[in-house]
Amino acid sequence: MKKIYKKNPFKTPDTYFEEFSDSLSTRLREESVKLPKKGGFALPDGYLDGLHSSIQEKLEPKGTKVVPLNPYRRYYLAAASIAALMLMIIGINWNITKQNASWEDIANTDIENYFENNAIGLSSYEIAEVIAVDGLEISNFLDSQLSEEHILDYLNERTDDYEELNLEEDE
């Protein structure tokens, strides 16, 4: 930002404003005032006579420039859209052939969430009757390590009064 200077570079004589009106009136009373006899501005001869017609000529619409459009532009756009469509179809088919869903890809928690959120009308006993027990071994249940955090999260989600369980770390 510019600095604001306290000193004013312009100065007037001390009695300038008191004497200004007197000096102006005396200069106007004098006959030697040199005012021009003719005005400073003059119109050319016949200017106002031809003004209307010159304005009308300027307002008349002239032929506009015609810019020829490239006739091949439509073909380029059509070819580009077809190429984009083909790339999209190939990309979709490529992704579909890569992904083969299997039961191993689905997490156990996803299956549990599906059964919890979708009412299928089966109780846990009815589901247990359908599951084959032949493939299960007791070691599958014993090997899984449950951490204390998982147990507390399970109790927090499943119980209504988690605070009333009186879980203390000293016990």
Structure overview:
This protein has a domain at 132-158. The two termini are 72 Å apart. Helix content is 50%, strand content 0%. With 171 residues, it is mainly α. The chain contains 7 helices and no strands. The protein is elongated, with a radius of gyration of 49 Å.
What's the gyration radius in Å? 49 Å
Count of β-strands: 0
Shape: elongated
β-strand percent reads: under 5%
The biggest beta sheet is recorded as: none
Could you give the distance between the termini? 72 Å
Please provide the ordered H/E string of secondary-structure elements: HHHHHHH
User: Percent of residues in helical segments?
Assistant: 40-55%
How many H/I helices? 7
The chain-level mean pLDDT equals 76
Structural class: mainly alpha
- Residue stretches low in confidence (pLDDT < 50, at least 5 long) are none
Q: Topology, please?
A:
Layout: H1 16-29, H2 47-59, H3 73-98, H4 108-117, H5 124-130, H6 138-142, H7 148-158
Describe the structure in brief.
The chain has 171 residues and is mainly α.
Fill in the keyword field for this structure.
mainly alpha, 7 helices, single chain, 171 residues
